[in-house]
Amino acid sequence: MLNRQIPLSPNETWSDADGGLPVSAPESAEAVVVDQFVAATGRLVWAIRESFVRYVTLIARGEYTIAGGVTEGEDGQFAFPLRRAVQEGDDWRLSFGGSVHFVAHHGLLDVLIVDPELVVGPGGGVLATHVRGDADELIAMVVTDAASPEFSWKELVWQDVPTKLATAGAELLGNVYPKGTDMASLGIRVQLDA
Hints:
The chain has three helices and 14 strands. By secondary structure, the protein is mainly beta. The protein has one domain (about 35-190). One of its GO terms (molecular function) is oxidoreductase activity, acting on the CH-CH group of donors.
């Protein structure tokens, strides 16, 4: 299993902060067998939470910007392009590019979701964002239930994966929503070269 110890907030790990989801112990590089696929195309589609986007744009009269290849659909969902897909056993680590940046209240509300990473498998999952100014640090935005992909002609598809706000995700959104709040579901497509 992939090492899923993505911090949720200082001194917390995924398992102790969000309902006891399984976290595997770190393994040495020699002990890990990874099947890596180079994806020809792929994307993560996520609307974050409709009421949050509506609050920023309509009530707080703020704005959001997209960059780095992120696109926005007519349904308000943001599509982040896939950069890397790695499988280890039944788990997947998917790295996406681009950003969505929300700003309101003259900068007092400032939320940046950049280069998200998703670890997902039969034991559950976590979607994390990179921390502003630190390309190596991740904070968990949301956690998911168990999710396995459907496979069809070199394409992996995860549809309507439910998400709940993680502790660090709640802090990132300004504690407007408490930990455990239902967020928008995830949609993921990974088309494999191999």
